[in-house]
Design a protein that fits this description.
This protein is of the alpha/beta class. It contains one helix and nine strands. The strands form three sheets. A four-stranded mixed β-sheet has the order 2-1-4-7, with no helix packed on it. β1 and β2 form a beta hairpin. The radius of gyration is 25 Å and the shape is elongated. The relative contact order is 0.18. The structure holds copper (II) ion.
Length: 148
Amino acid sequence: MTRSRIEFRWATGRLLGGLARAITGLLGVFVLLLLGCDYHGGHGNAMGFASAGWDVEIISAKIGGKNVFIPSTIAVADHNPVTLTIFNTTDTPHGFAIDELGIREVIPSGEETRIELPKLEGHKILKIYCQLHPPHRSATLVVFRGPR
Ligand SMILES: [Cu+2]
């Protein structure tokens, strides 16, 4: 095989590789559009984040001398009722507040409190904190948008 022939094959291979990458990229964009992640509505415009209605189980605990909520990030979708059950594992009462939802509870030591959340609105990140102890580490409630 001559040198020029080898170079021609090498160039053709590169061209085909580039085409294959371009086609793969376009397919990726089409898949994203089908999933509803278009530029007009963003996430949740067509389908949203589906979830079953459920209870989120949280504990208020003391770790390394710090009061914490576990889990510290709670994710829910806004299309179903959500109940939070918070168990206080420590030997002192702790608060549980979410200002945007009008929630302000005190959970006695060694007890569990159930809180039914009001109707949620998606695309929100809300702060959960203990209103009794400012140093008590806060948590986060992430509300995704459910199917419409
Ligand atoms: Cu506290």
